[in-house]
């Protein structure tokens, strides 16, 4: 459906954070979720208007209902059904809580949910619950099985940071056992509560990218990365080295503002939930207009205008770096992604602070 997607005109993924309310308080939560709903959330009528505007992007626009926990809204199935009636592809990322019963999962399927994404950040109850700081493993697994029973395709989301990276092979096995159709592997961006967690090093991230490509070749489920677009660069380099299919995809990747947009719970439109720089509010302006015409979004769709090594990189049009991480670390959404270790040939400009420091550490003689 999206093979010829023009990301200047429409996003591949439009996320609507329907609420920040959630019964969990996970350590890495981007939204700093809290138990109560915000009094200025988009109303049911405003949400329906947002969905109608989103339908103007074109047939089959993908909409992800996110949070917080979307199930905190009692009009959720009404919104899902409305979006489905408009021809939108409605998907959801609920929290793994006891409220996600088989009955509610079935109701969401009946309303038109096309995919459910659940977070799994550890291969065992102990690892998952310790990482999240909440007891959610059992409820998440039960919800995954309920989705399968209801015929709803399942996506598993996993956060990669220093606490979880060594557990990825075992999590991969869980993803397979749960019958997921897609594994979305999110590389930590230091925003919200996630600021207290330690990211992996650029070199460890590079090794994880190569391993994830191997997983994608071995497993029946798909693999994608979130906030780590240099996964595409690694794939191209593997193909050029003869260690992967030579037909590596050289089309532009999906990054904040380029194929991706995020509507916050009060209507602010951001390039990503991890890049909290508003370009407008859907109460005042159509999300279509904000995406297509705002200066912020247009700047993020111009890799030739990026600074540092991302702007000089020959892979900038297929990768472009994480704009969210660049913003979180440097305050500049067009700066370099500090997680990517690749330095373009001939580039002699500044390196991201962490990468420069690690390079200096490696150059020191051993004791």
Characteristics:
367 residues, alpha/beta, 9-stranded mixed sheet, 9 strands
3D architecture notes:
The chain is α/β, with parallel strands linked by helices and 367 residues long. The chain is built from 13 helices and nine strands. The protein has a nine-stranded mixed beta sheet with strand order 7-6-5-4-3-2-1-8-9. The N and C termini lie far apart (57 Å). Residues 356-367 have low confidence and may be disordered.
Query: Widest sheet: strand order?
Result: 7-6-5-4-3-2-1-8-9
> How much is the radius of gyration in Å?
20 Å
Fraction of residues in helices?
25-40%
Secondary structure tally, helices: 13
Shape: globular
Total beta strands: 9
Quickly give the structural class.
Answer: alpha/beta
What is the arithmetic mean of pLDDT? Answer: 90
Summarize the structure.
The chain has 367 residues and is α/β, with parallel strands linked by helices.
Protein topology:
Blueprint: E1 13-17, H1 44-55, E2 62-66, H2 76-85, E3 89-92, H3 102-111, E4 115-119, H4 125-132, H5 137-149, E5 154-160, H6 168-177, E6 182-187, H7 202-218, E7 222-226, H8 230-240, E8 260-263, E9 269-270, H9 287-293, H10 295-300, H11 308-312, H12 323-330, H13 353-363
Helix pairs in contact: 2-3, 3-5, 7-8
């Amino acid at each position: 459906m999206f093979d010829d997607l023009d990301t200047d005109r429409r996003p591949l993924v439009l996320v609507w954070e329907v609420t920040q309310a959630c019964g969990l308080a996970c350590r890495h939560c981007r939204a700093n979720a809290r138990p109560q709903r915000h009094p200025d959330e988009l109303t049911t009528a405003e949400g329906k208007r947002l969905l109608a505007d989103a339908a103007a992007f074109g047939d089959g626009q993908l909409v992800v209902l996110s949070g917080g926990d979307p199930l905190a809204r009692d009009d959720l199935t009404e919104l899902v059904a409305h979006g489905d009636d408009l021809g939108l592809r409605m998907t959801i990322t609920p929290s793994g809580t006891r409220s996600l019963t088989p009955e509610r999962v079935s109701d969401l399927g009946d309303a038109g949910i096309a995919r459910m994404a659940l977070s799994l950040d550890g291969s065992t109850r102990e690892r998952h619950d310790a990482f999240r700081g909440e007891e959610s493993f059992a409820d998440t697994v039960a919800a995954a099985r309920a989705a399968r029973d209801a015929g709803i395709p399942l996506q598993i989301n996993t956060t990669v940071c220093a606490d979880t990276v060594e557990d990825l092979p075992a999590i991969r096995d869980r993803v397979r056992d749960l019958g997921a159709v897609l594994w979305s592997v999110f590389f930590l961006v230091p925003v919200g509560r996630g600021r207290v967690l330690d990211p992996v090093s650029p070199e460890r991230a590079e090794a994880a990218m190569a391993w994830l490509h191997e997983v994608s070749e071995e497993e029946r489920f798909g693999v994608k990365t979130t906030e780590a677009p240099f996964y595409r660069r690694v794939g191209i380099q593997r193909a050029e080295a003869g260690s992967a299919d030579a037909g590596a995809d050289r089309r532009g990747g999906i990054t904040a503002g380029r194929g991706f947009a995020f509507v916050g719970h009060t209507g602010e439109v951001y390039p990503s939930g991890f890049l909290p720089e508003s370009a407008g509010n859907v109460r005042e302006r159509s999300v279509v207009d904000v995406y297509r015409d705002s200066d912020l979004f247009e700047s993020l769709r111009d890799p030739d205008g990026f600074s540092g090594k991302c702007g000089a990189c020959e892979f900038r049009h297929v990768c472009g770096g994480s704009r969210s991480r660049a913003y979180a670390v440097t305050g500049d959404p067009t700066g370099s992604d500090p997680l990517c270790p690749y330095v373009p040939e001939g580039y002699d400009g500044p390196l991201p602070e962490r990468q420069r420091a690690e390079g200096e550490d490696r150059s020191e003689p051993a004791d």
